[in-house]
Design a protein that fits this description.
This protein is α+β, with helices and mostly antiparallel strands and about 140 residues long. The protein has four helices and five strands. It has one domain: Nuclear Transport Factor 2, Chain: A.
Length: about 140
């Protein structure tokens, strides 16, 4: 499967981890931060824990395709993230997160990035069984 830089960055950002008992906004923010740490550590399974079973991603990607793609990517590349903007709005069982990030990708033991991209995304969250799950992700205009 061939995917562009935008789809790769989107998939990386959507793979999010863990929630706590604080406010919904704090839970989403913490999940995102947990995702970034897991991805930078190369822990794909941990980063993917919070995808909704009905996840809809870039280029028609479903939850299983996202999992396979991200695990393959993390086997060959190391990732880094710089968050430039992170705005979250919550309503009862839903949340919307708008963010802009710079994603760096390095292969092998390289110290310097092979590729750097800046992208903006909209992530839709839903509360399922008391936990926040990523329902969808799309590139912001």
């Amino acid at each position: 499967m061939h995917m562009g830089r935008t789809a790769v960055a989107a998939l990386i950002l959507v793979a999010l981890a863990g929630c706590t008992g604080e406010s919904p906004e704090f839970q989403v923010r913490r999940s995102f931060e947990g995702c970034v740490k897991a991805l930078e550590a190369g822990d794909g399974p941990k980063a993917l824990e919070v995808l909704s079973p009905t996840f809809e991603g870039p280029e028609g990607m479903d939850r299983n395709a996202a999992r396979l793609f991200l695990l393959a990517l993390l086997k060959r590349e190391r990732l880094g993230f710089t968050v430039l903007q992170n705005h979250i709005e919550t309503r009862e069982q839903e949340a919307a997160q708008e963010l802009t990030v710079v994603v760096t990708r390095r292969s092998g033991g390289s110290v310097l990035p092979d590729e750097t991209s800046r992208s903006s995304f909209l992530i839709r969250w839903e509360r399922r069984k008391g936990e926040w799950r990523v329902k969808s992700l799309r590139q912001a205009q």
